[in-house]
Amino acid sequence: MSARGLVKTYPLPSGEVTALGGIDLDVTAGEFVAVVGRSGSGKTTLLNLLAGIDRPTTGEIVVAGTSVHELRGSRLAAWRGRTIGLVFQFFQLLPTLTVAENVMLPMDLCATVPARQRRSRADGLLEQVGILDQAGKLPSALSGGQQQRAAIARALANEPPVLMADEPTGNLDSATSDSVLDLFAQLAADGRTVLMVTHERDVSRHATRHITLGDGLMAGDTAGGNLPEGMLP
Ligand SMILES: Nc1ncnc2c1ncn2[C@@H]1O[C@H](COP(=O)(O)OP(=O)(O)OP(=O)(O)O)[C@@H](O)[C@H]1O
């Protein structure tokens, strides 16, 4: 995954806000990258651009051989559904569907898996994240950690090469956070690219690389699990 000259500005009545001022980035398969930085430094904007949720004002993004900045509308949505697994702070599970049905939803939307294989694939993913015994329950019957595991299984439904997570442990206690982060580390070790936005030092130490943003620019790029002092707010 690479980005070149990534700029994102928002026009406001009071003037233009520059969320990203020109980011160059290369991330390879198997990396577990934590994007860190102060509030307002551009972390979520960067993740949204790389995931194809939002489009850059200028600049280029290439993910798994596709020039994402050239895609629009339904082609962008189809690419995103196949390529990017998304995990959010508040899980975003659909409350009226069972856990297994939530996991099958991306398969239904993208038709990447034949209909008769979707349930067994969902069960396999739920087993991988350790909650197969919760498959038939509604999300409200699960703990926060179990709900985030269900959301990770759903993110993996279409076998995306890239997993992106915005503050995935922001709503979990520290022991539960650790187990979810171990799961991300395992998914990266299996060859996926994992990119996580976080502002918590304890969370970011699970990553193998830290990208620090400051005022929309790259302020640091360090390998290893320990973020140098002063690199987090
Ligand atoms: N839709 C928008 N319209 C206008 N300004 C925006 C919009 N989205 C983000 N911004 C601005 O862009 C800058 C970067 O925001 P962003 O949410 O990417 O930062 P962040 O590092 O993720 O912050 P936080 O840690 O608080 O979530 C901020 O100044 C923010 O106010």
Automatic annotation (TrEMBL):
Identify the SUPFAM superfamilies for this entry: P-loop containing nucleoside triphosphate hydrolases
> What UniProt keywords are attached to this protein's entry?
ATP-binding, Nucleotide-binding, Transport
**What are the recorded GO MF terms, alphabetically?**
ATP binding
A single Pfam family, by name?
A: ABC_tran
Return the InterPro entries for the record: AAA+_ATPase, ABC_transporter-like_ATP-bd, ABC_transporter-like_CS, ABC_transpr_LolD-like, MacB-like_ATP-bd, P-loop_NTPase
Name all ABC transporter domain ranges. Answer: 1-232
Span-the-membrane segments of this chain are: none
List the protein's name.
ABC transporter ATP-binding protein
